[in-house]
Amino acid sequence: MTELSIEIIDWFLQEAHDDPSVGTWWWYLATLDYNAAPQRRPDRGQIGTPTPIDPSFSSPFVGKSLEGVARWLRRKPQSVDVDGRYFGVLDKEAEKSGKIAICRLNDPKVEEEAAWCILRAADYSTLFLAGLDSDLDWNELVQLQKYTLEL
Predict the structure, then answer these.
(1) In 10 A of CB 97, how many CB atoms?
(2) Is the entire prediction scored with pTM above 0.85?
(3) What CA–CA distances, in Å, run from 54 to 50, 51, 65, 95, 129?
(4) How many Cβ atoms from other residues are within 10 Å of residue 6's Cβ?
(5) Are 100 and 94 in contact (CB under 8 A)?
(6) How far apart are CA 72 and CA 70, in angstroms?
(7) Is pLDDT larger for residue 66 or for residue 20?
(8) Given the DSSP bridges, would you call strands 86-89 and 115-121 parallel, antiparallel or unpaired?
(9) Is the separation of the CB atoms in 42 and 132 below 8 Å?
């Protein structure tokens, strides 16, 4: 993964939040500490990271492979309220185009299983993710739009 400026990350989170059909902080900026992640509660849905983010934030995944991010998801405790199958990656392309790689673990329980990604605009990314819970066929999308991260 690549280090991006705080301004780019803030811009992305705000764009994703401002989608009028979603209007929530969907994306969570992960740290290695599972205790710092949102915890499941019956009285609310998933909570992401609001802007502005802490200027000292640095992703723990910089320099890691896509599999390193996937490993964090596979090992998260059940109490952690982040999606265990879909996740986003801001790479070099994000800075150029304002798009995020939305990735999916093929099988969250299989440690060696690869993750696949497709590219989506920041302002459409949360609506797209919400649609993945319905009837979108991920395998068909990947065949048409598979994206290789620029690490």
Answers:
(1) 11
(2) no
(3) 10, 8, 24, 19, 25
(4) 15
(5) yes
(6) 5
(7) 66
(8) unpaired
(9) no
